[in-house]
Amino acid sequence: MSRALARLAAPEFNLALTLNSGQVFHWLPHRNGFVGAIGDAPVYVEQRGDELRTNAKPQFVARYFALDHPLMDIYRTFPNDPTMSEALTFCRGLRIIRQPAWECLATFITSSMKQVAHIAQISHTLRRKFGKRLRLAEIELFAYPTVAALAKTSELELRKCALGYRAKNLLGTARMIANGEVELEKIRAMNDDDARAELCRFPGVGEKIANCVLLFAYERVRAFPIDIWIERVLRETYFARKRKITAKRLREFSQSYFGEFGGYAQQYLFHHARSTRKKGAR
Question: For 216-253, b where at least 16 C-beta lie within 10 A, e where not — what string?
Answer without folding.
Answer: bbbbbbbbbbbbebbeebbeeebeeeeeeeeeeebeee
